[in-house]
Amino acid sequence: MRIKTLTIKAFGKFQDETIELQPGLNLIYGRNEAGKTTVQTFIQGMFFGFYKPYRKKKTYSEEYEKYMPWNQFDYSGSLVYEQDGREIRLERNFLRAKDSLFIYDNTTGKIINDQFKYDGVIRQQLPLGNLGMTAVIYNNTINMRQIAHDNESGTQDEVRDSYIEMQNSSGIEINFKGIVRRLEEKKNNIGRSGQSKSRIGAAIRERDELLQLLKESEAAYAKVAENQEKITRNQKKMKRIEAENDYLSQESVVKRKKELLQSYEKINKLEKENNRLSKIIREDEVYEGYNYKTLEGLKAISNQSDRLSDQMDYIEKEMTDASEHLKTIRQKEASKRSSLAGHTLENIAEDYETYKKEQDEVAAVDKKSNIIINIISALVTLLGMGLVGLANMGMMGTSQGIENLSLTVGVTLAILGVVGLSFGISATLKKQKILKEKQLIPIQEQILAKYQLKDGPSFDSYYKKVVRNQKELEQMQNEGELIIVQHSRHQAGYEVLFEQRRGIMRDLERKLAEYEVKDIAEYAERCEKGQQLEELKIRFNGNLRLLENLLETVNGGKTDDGQSVWQKASPKSAELLSLGKEIARLEGENSALTDGIGLPVEIQETIKSLDAQIESFDTEIKACNAALEVLEAIQKDYHLESAPELNKNIGDILETITQNYKGVKIDEAMKLKVVDPKGGDFKDAEQLSAGTMDQVHFAFRYGIGELITHEMPFILDEPFVRYDKQRKTQALKLLSELSSKRQVILFTCDDDEENLLKTLNAPYHKITL
Question: Alpha carbon 674 to chain centroid distance?
């Protein structure tokens, strides 16, 4: 037999994945978390499903939940294998609500489920049942999972379990492990006589309580018998008195007989109605147990899920709006930046500063020159005017020549001052005119040309606009960063709500599956039918009580008002009343004596039944102990028969791998021992190093697989983690030899296996996940 194709539709992390396997050695390579163990578990699930063994009803194993895809709407796949020249296709749906397996002839497409063994517990065919292969044997022999590196004792337990299962696969139609567990469970279920809560202890306690109750019942019923004799005597006396009375008139008798006939008609009508109600109740008993309290709980879960969904929708809308807003901001930023024509604020500011600096320097020099000229001109004018004034006032002396000279010099200075002042003012006006006419130095012209501007004022406006744009860009960037932070918070909140809603939906689906309904509406419909069922039961019981009253009336010869049909009022009514009261008192006393106490004969029968039950429990426990002893003896016998061959196979393989240990023994306690090559003593497997224990484990699987079946593929997941290079080489050599006879599937995350196979010139087919 060889596996050809794996089609993983939805399983674990995989979705719509196809893996083609070849005959011989298949090396499936993948890094950690690539899904190697998932593929190995998928193969197991396709052959066996995920059910716990040795159960009386279908029970799912832990792998079912572990490898369920996140979407939970699909959990399926298919596997094609070839056996005896025939291609067989398995299609399995793992979902609990859609759990199914279809087996096809892959050549004709015909469904061939009926050609395979059927398991009544899981209600499915067993694809490998004709080979005698169960999930327990598969996982303890030819399917070698990852070894727990921190638990050598757990590995040793697995070795022991594998050996026990091998006994069953060697042609013996007994599962020792399952039978022993069931026998022990049966013994534990019965318990011991000293355990008050065990079945046998409860039976003994109940028997002892009934023995005490029997004494009380016998005393009570002895008193009841005494009272009954008194009641009988009083009743006879009342009959004698009543016999003395005349019968009522014929008319009255006929009238009351009609009333009895009416009661009969009511009884007949009620019986017909109750027959009809009984039929309906039997048909609707399936709706019993569905109640509105559970319905409200389911609705609360659904409403919680809806609220979370609404919150998720709101957050999703907020995230969309934020994304659109952020997009708009980015567009505005791009527009603002494009308006700068590739220039930056720093470059523009630097050019603007240079422009202003040149302009200020020219203005400062021109201003300084004009001021000096104007000051000097003003001073000369004042000096001239002063000299003229002094000459006119005769303060320059008595000499006429000096006054004339002073006057001439003063006038001349005044004229020069006025001329200089006029020149300064004229020069100032001329420079202002030049500035107005935008006469610029070359560097300023270059700056304006760089930004395609006409003059300084336009450059001022342009610079102010750039500064304003920069502030707006910074504001947009801050707003964008705030939106990104809000978007991240929304995303985190959305993921939390998603996980909460997912958990709630899982809980809801689990509860609906428990009640075997598809949705809440179907549960509500069943609640309504359950309520109708309760109403029918109430009506049915009410009719029963009414029937009992009517029958009592009819059987007692009384009408609805309680009057006797056949007798009239007795003249000795006081005596009859007294006798009636005494009879009622005695009957009340009898009722009180027997209230809550069964008949002695019934208690005695119950005690006999309990004695028989206790004796049966004792017999069952003795039978279980005897069966366990027989199974232990049979197991020892099979150990003596099969151990030599198994010891030799495992020892040869272990020697090939380790080049050191060459003797292996499996004792009666199902413990594996290795012969110490130095002293020849036996050494428990737990005493070996972790790496050597792995190699013993591999040798055991290899050897036991050869004994059980030569058909099934040998599947290994990271078996050589703790091997050194030499032992890994020997193990790969064995697998290469084995692959010539049967398919081998080796999962690994290391390149060593491929390199060693190349060194050995061993053929292999590599698959990368």
Answer: 44
User: What separation in angstroms does the CA of 763 have from each of 154, 363, 459?
Assistant: 34, 94, 81
DSSP string, 556-572: TTB-TT--BSSB---TT
Residue type, 239: K
Query: Which candidate, 691, 470, 559, 503, places its Cα nearest to that of 258?
Result: 559
What residues pair up with 76 in beta bridges, in sequence order?
10, 93
Q: Which residues of 166-181 are buried (b: 16+ CB within 10 A; e: fewer)?
A: bbbbeeeeebbbbebe
Q: Output the six-digit token pair for 682.
A: 């036996």
Helix (H, G, I), strand (E, B) or coil at 715: strand
Report the alpha-carbon distance of residue 470 to residue 477 in Å, rounded: 10
Work out the angle between the directed axes of helices 573-594 and 199-243 (0-180°, nearest 10).
170
Token representation of residue 161? 């379990």
- Over the stretch 391-401, which tens digit does the pLDDT of each residue have? 677 665 556 77
CB atoms within 10 A of CB 269: 11
- The vertex-692 CA angle with 690 and 698, nearest 5°, equals 105
Give the residue among 15, 16, 12 at the shortest CA–CA distance from 69.
12
- Residues forming beta bridges with residue 3, ordered by sequence position: 81
Per-residue confidence (pLDDT) for residue 75, from 0 to 100: 93
SS (H, E, C) 256-273: HHHHHHHHHHHHHHHHHH
Going by their DSSP bridges, the two strands 672-675 and 682-684 should be labelled as antiparallel
- The structure tokens listed for 82 are 């070839």
Q: Considering only 454-463, 512-521, 660-669, which range has the smallest mean pLDDT?
A: 660-669
Residue from 315, 302, 297, 301 nearest 498 by CA: 315
CA dist., res. 127 & res. 57, Å (int): 20
Over residues 493-508, mean pLDDT:
89
What is the structure's pLDDT at 607? 86
Tokens 């296709």 sit on residue: 89
Measure the CA angle with vertex 591, ends 587 and 597; round to 5°. 150
Angstrom CA distances, 378 to 19, 367, 383, 425, stand at: 108, 16, 9, 11
Cα–Cα distance for residue pair 349/625, rounded to 1 Å: 102
Element spanning 239, H or E: helix 199-243
Query: Is 681 in a helix, a strand, or coil?
Result: coil
Residue 692's CB is within 10 A of a number of other CB atoms, namely 21
* pLDDT at site 108: 93
Q: Are 374 and 425 in contact (CB under 8 A)?
A: yes
Q: How many Cβ atoms sit within 10 Å of the Cβ of residue 632?
A: 13
Q: Is 305 helix (H, G, I), strand (E, B) or coil?
A: helix
Beta strands 14-20 and 25-29, pairing class: unpaired
